[in-house]
Design a protein that fits this description.
Length: 357
Amino acid sequence: MRADIRPFSLPLADPLETARGTVERRDGLLLRLEADDGSVGVGEATPLPGWTEHYDECESALAEVSEVLRASNTSGETASEEIDAGADPDDLLADLDSTPAARHALDLALADLRASRQRVPLYRYFGAENPAKSVPVNATVGDAPAEATVAEAERAAAAGFDCLKVKVGARQLSADVERIEAVADALPEVELRADANAAWTREQAQQFLDAVGDRLAYVEQPLPATDLAGLASLAGPVALDETLAEVGFEDALDANPDAVILKPMALGGPREASALASRAREEGIEPVVTTTIDGAVARTAAVHVAAAIPDVTACGLATRKLLESDLGPDIAPVADGRAVVPQGEGNGTADTWGHHD
Ligand SMILES: O=C(O)CCC(=O)c1ccccc1C(=O)O
Ligand SMILES: [Mg+2]
């Protein structure tokens, strides 16, 4: 077994303004596994504090992973032998429970390697019963004054998006209400979501929902991640994002959400996210898969996670255009409000390793 790590740094073309500040660049690490039979799996860790560990912690965790996998070439019943034999290195994965981005890299590399061996696309390996050509995606509209928000929303609608997510919570509540009303008036046919990134008090969140709740499919993370009682008490449709990263899926159920935002990078990997999508559906909760503005490897894997969900709703996967450059070619391009689902073996991004320098 070989295990190699390669760092990368991707600037955003279009920094994303949110209530938590601006996302300006995405630094991460690729992990490449090559089993003794020559099969390859590539994973990506692109940490984002607030959802995952910090970069330094992620880097050390992955350095440890590669050390364990290399060292074990010569010693006993080992993690690399487990992988070569087609099993999961459970102890190694468990060591990464507190570093979800690092765990994502290993989980994705393993899933890619195994799906490639089985000669199926990753979304079929995740259990999709039917072939899927594409999945619906939302456009992501950052914080900006009302006029600029409407202009951006109109550009997205003209490009074929019929679902938009607008960032809120970075300015006065009355200004956000005005922004949402202006977008809803300008684009009555478009499904609208708002994402407050945990910015509000209970009173503010309820005021927002009372004002524009009926024009929105839901408001994402209106309250701080751990205010489960407050979230449960809100009248109006609510989706949870930061709460899942902070308290986990099962505890988040106490907040009684209408939808859950599943970010594979924050949840320890695409296989975890895929399992949680099924759990959500069992609970009558709508799963929505999104990236943390990841590189091509993780973004493509998130598209596969979405493609394995029957009749998936629009997902937050149209994030390639926020990046100035990427790890490799985009094999899950977005057009007309949908992302193409790759049909090759595994994630389909094994070449990405060679592209990046
Ligand atoms: O959901 C989307 O449309 C794109 C992803 C997104 O908004 C996001 C991207 C990076 C970090 C946090 C978030 C978020 O959902 O809060
Ligand atoms: Mg969010």
